[in-house]
Amino acid sequence: MPSGLVALAVGGFGIGLTEFLIAGLLPQVAASFAVSEAAAGRLISGYALSVAVGAIALTAATARLPRKHVLVGLVVLFVLGNLLSAIAPSYPVMLLGRIVAALCHGSFFGIGSLVARGMVAPERASRAVAVMFAGLTVANVLGVPFGALVGERWGWRAAFWAVTVIGLLALTGIVAFVPSRAGRTPPTALGVRAQFGAFRSGQVWLTLVATALGYGGMFGAFSYIAYTFTEVGGFSSAAVPWLLMVYGVGLVVGNLIGGRAADHDRDRALILALAGLTVTLAAFGLLASSATASVVLAFLMGAFGFAGVPGLITRVTDYAHGAALAAGANVSASNLGNALGAWAGGLAITAGLGYTAPLYVGAGIVLISVLVMTVAAHRANSAGRRARESAVRR
Questions:
Q1: Sorting pLDDT into bands at 50, 70 and 90, what band is 184?
Q2: Which residues contact 336 (CB under 8 A, 6 or more apart)?
């Protein structure tokens, strides 16, 4: 495995920790700055909004720059944002630090996926992307308990100091180990206006829609999974963090297996992953009262949910002819899907349909994603067949 991929994974791990650890620190942060729980919660929602904006804005602004240089700049931004959070004298400064750190999130994973592909042979592209995203999936497992543990022992600022150090390690690794050829912007790199031209491709849009719906269905259900565990499954609140870790382990496993599968037959792997997630969410809704089934299905929910991530990223960038903006748009689509899925799941609960309702709603949303991906695959196969027939006639 190229050392540069490990460096990218460390960067993904740090960025993932920044996103997730705050959930375990909110009570301390709120008390420290004497703000309400709702105000403290904006440290999460403000981060998510900044991710969506930064994924498009920074990727577009840096489209013609060498990709390795852009990655270095993004990690510097990440380090500065977390440093600002660690030393923040007031709540507004803390929020600013969160926003600064979040701006790099989408662009790092979008541009980083292109750099990761450049370090391996084309037939291993999805596996390379999976390695980079492994850092994010591990952070999903460790983020909340890491923040809670460090915060309890040394205070919430220590958690942000720790993430700052991880950012510096990633920065050092990227500078030292990511080869210049992998981070070099191709001579055919497009300007901002031309980058938007990549979105004329119907396949790009179909992939982005499948991404938004796939993420939306999973995270719409995941947003309320703690209530499902405690109110339906009968678990104690103390068991929830461990159950979430089971889900997180599923993310790690699914990401790595999905990357390998996508390198063999990408569209089939994506359809199977999304179909598996649909069945898992529906089964979870039916069997949520069983403790054993809940543990198994939480793992499968994570596994199928993240199995499609590497393939979706390589697919959208392939049909966008390597346009970095498309990679950033994929991250924005996933965050948009997360927000819409959580909203839809909340509506179902508000309507009195119970705490299993988000699972059924999520299954329905992901089923639409399966249909979209099936249409995309059929069109791609038809286009490929016509191209081969045309070549034969020549």
A1: low
A2: 52, 212, 216
CA distance 165 to 159: 10
C-alpha span between 147 and 44 (Å, rounded): 14
Determine the Cα–Cα distance for residues 92 and 386; give it in Å rounded to an integer.
58
- Within the chain, strands assigned E span none
* Run of H or E including 296: helix 291-307
Whether the pLDDT of residue 382 is over 90: the answer is no
* Residues near 392 by beta carbon (within 8 Å), at least 6 away in sequence: none
- Report residue 364 as tokens: 């329905």
Distance, in Å, from the CA atom of 223 to the CA atom of 221, rounded to the nearest integer, reads 6
Tokens of 194: 């031309």
Is the sign of the CA dihedral 30, 34, 37, 40 positive or negative?
negative
Residue 155 DSSP label: -
CB-based contact 62:185 (threshold 8 Å): no
Residue-wise pLDDT tens digits, 135-177: 777 777 776 667 667 777 788 898 889 889 999 999 999 898 8
232: tokens are: 């339906």
| Closest-CA residue to 329 (of 211, 240, 219) | 211
Residues whose CB is less than 8 angstroms from the CB of residue 234 and which lie 6 or more positions away in sequence, other chains included: 289, 291
**Sign of the alpha-carbon dihedral angle for 233, 144, 334, 50:** positive
